[in-house]
Write a structure and sequence with these properties.
- Belongs to the ABC transporter superfamily.
- This protein is of the alpha/beta class.
- The protein has a single domain, classed as P-loop containing nucleotide triphosphate hydrolases (Rossmann fold, 3-Layer(aba) Sandwich), CATH 3.40.50.300.
- It is 39% helix and 22% strand.
- The protein is built from nine helices and nine strands.
- The strands form two sheets. Strands 5-6-7-3-8-9 form a six-stranded mixed beta sheet, with helices on both faces.
- The longest helix has 16 residues.
- The termini are far apart.
- The chain binds adenosine-5'-triphosphate.
């Protein structure tokens, strides 16, 4: 397989934690994939995404992004990935436009090129007329849209999204999903966590189901449904996870 992300035997135990939040994960994700990470609260999705983005370091194990590791190639890897975190990374008192100028410049974009990209995405996501309002006056859905733009301005080849549609209204969700489809069509590899099973079923070609830090099912939604003799991903998810799924106590 032409793996753009290669995860080999990753374990992560946080300081002062008594258990592994990610445990023995081995996974290859191919270039151009739309890959979904699904799991209940506390399963380890954010931890795994944070490891892949180089925001935290594994306790043991190896992560290769486009064949490179973070120890030697952090700067190069970070130029090529986009990260859309669950928590807003935006400055509340700055306008959407000012926030995006700041994020774009962090990736070395400037001048006309940066402004063109900001204008394009603000327009695409229906925020053009709100561009100069402060973020603190935005609804949750509008903030999510700006948060997404901040992660894609530099045209990354891999995009990591941690629940990009959580807490947003239907309109915002549809626009966000539409943009993700568009990016995928252009060849961006997308790694995405979500609690919305319908959304994951619609978007993701491959889905990893994770609980208590371990991946215990992997496949397309069709494969997961076939394995569980169910007719939708929600039923497959419940059949696979059962009633015993609990967060770490
Ligand atoms: N900084 C930390 N220090 C100690 N434990 C942590 C830390 N961050 C997360 N954990 C623990 O690691 C486990 C996995 O958490 P994580 O946030 O990765 O799960 P998640 O699947 O993203 O959950 P959610 O769906 O609620 O966002 C949980 O038990 C959590 O309490």
């Amino acid at each position: 397989m032409n793996a753009i992300i290669d995860i080999q035997g990753i374990y992560k135990k946080y300081k002062e934690s008594e258990f592994f939040s990610v445990e023995d994960v081995n996974l290859q994700i191919k270039k151009g994939a739309f890959f979904g990470l699904l799991g209940p609260n506390g399963a380890g999705k954010t931890t795994l995404i944070s490891l892949l983005c180089g925001l935290i370091k594994p306790t043991t194990g190896k992560i290769l992004i486009e064949g490179k590791n973070y120890e030697s190639f952090e700067k190069q890897i970070k130029q090529n990935i986009g990260v859309v975190p669950q928590e807003y990374a935006l400055y509340p008192t700055l306008s959407a436009y000012e926030n995006l100028l700041y994020f774009g410049s962090m990736y070395g974009l400037k001048g006309k090129e940066l402004k063109k990209s900001i204008d394009y995405y603000l327009d695409y996501l229906g925020l053009k007329e709100h561009a100069h309002r402060s973020i603190q006056s935005f609804s949750g859905g509008m903030k999510r849209r700006v948060n997404l733009i901040a992660g894609i301005l530099h045209n990354p080849s891999i995009l990591f999204l941690d629940e990009p549609t959580v807490g947003v209204d239907l309109q915002s969700r549809l626009i966000l999903v539409d943009l993700l489809k568009e990016l995928h069509k252009k060849g961006t590899t997308i790694i995405y966590t979500s609690h919305h099973l319908h959304e994951v079923q619609e978007l993701c070609e491959t889905i990893a189901i994770i609980d208590k830090g371990k991946i215990f099912a992997l496949g397309s939604s069709e494969e997961l449904m076939e394995k569980t003799q169910t007719t939708n991903l929600e039923a497959a998810f419940l059949a696979l996870t059962g009633v015993n799924l609990k967060e770490h106590e």
